[in-house]
């Protein structure tokens, strides 16, 4: 689990990122989870947008993404979900203790 200090650090790092994935009407599916997992391995930190036409609540979507990708939820702000997962091969961020 991330500490408050680590979440603050990650939020500041995520601030300038653009969302890479969008969750729309179809919700979260296996293929999307696979792609997001690969993107997290490459980047560690990313944003996902929940579109207006998505039938699920953004909190439910966030839970599905966290469960499916084994990532940490950094924050949900508006319709944007920020995810973090430490990369095995491609470590870029070093979290404060």
TrEMBL record:
Keywords for the protein's UniProt record, in alphabetical order: RNA-binding
Record-linked SUPFAM superfamilies: YhbY-like
UniProt cross-references to SMART domains, sorted A to Z: CRS1_YhbY (SM01103)
InterPro entries: RNA-binding_CRM, RNA-binding_domain, RNA-binding_YhbY, YhbY-like_sf
Domain CRM: 1-96
Database matches in Gene3D superfamilies: YhbY-like (3.30.110.60)
The name this protein goes by in its record: Ribosome assembly RNA-binding protein YhbY
The organism of origin for this protein: Heyndrickxia acidicola
